[in-house]
Amino acid sequence: MAKTIVITGAGTGLGREVARELAADGHILVLLGRTLSKLEKVAAEIGGGAYAVACDVSSADSVRDAFAVIAGRSAAIDVLINNAAVYQPFLVKDASDEQILSAVMTNYVGPIYCVRAAIPMMGKGGHVINVSSESVGLPFPMFSLYQSSKAGLERFSEALSAELAVDGIRVTTVRAGQMMGEDMTWNITPEVAARFGAACARAGLDLRSRPISHFSSPAKIFRQLIDLPPDLNLEFVHLQARHR
């Protein structure tokens, strides 16, 4: 049966690949992200009734507006995939207010805003999937805000699962490993990249030696999560890249 699935951060990276995978099964995809042109390009590519809605998940007003649009076009939401995130290296001692707020609001508060907006449109059998990062269990320099915000998201997922169980709504955390793809860009200066490499070296970490998967590989797992039997839930999934 076709489901209505909302995906945040759907214009690029993992979000886009998940949309491509799920569209192949005939689901109706609602693509959220900050850049409407990217979302519309994905919607046109996958077809099947997919539509794009501009949304900055770090803004409560933007999330409310986006879900009002969804409510006007879709009778219900079956699945919410909180995928949107910001991933930029910086030292806490040098961090600007904007960098701190961006990391916390997008990676942690944003999913909460989206869950709050989606729950009234979800019935029994609804499913919330929150995308985390394996960096939660592998601390490294210059990503303390990213890692801690994702750790908070994992704890939120656990508590939310207990809260929504009585309503028949499932909650799953997907902890993703290192990924890459055609649009994998950090938009950082060579100076910052050099500082990051040096900081990792001082900490005895060589992230370049760790395996990396393509975005399309973990995206395939979401098809399985969407099709779980109604009497089962996977509360936590760790997708680890491996050397080939």
TrEMBL record:
Domain of life, per lineage: Bacteria
Q: Which residues form a coiled coil?
A: none
Q: What name appears for this protein in its UniProt entry? A: NAD(P)-dependent dehydrogenase (Short-subunit alcohol dehydrogenase family)
**UniProt entry keywords in alphabetical sequence:** Oxidoreductase
Q: Which InterPro entries match?
A: NAD(P)-bd_dom_sf, SDR_fam
Tell me its family.
Answer: Belongs to the short-chain dehydrogenases/reductases (SDR) family.
Q: Which GO terms describe its cellular component?
A: membrane
Is Oxidoreductase tagged as a keyword? yes
Q: Name one GO molecular function term.
A: oxidoreductase activity
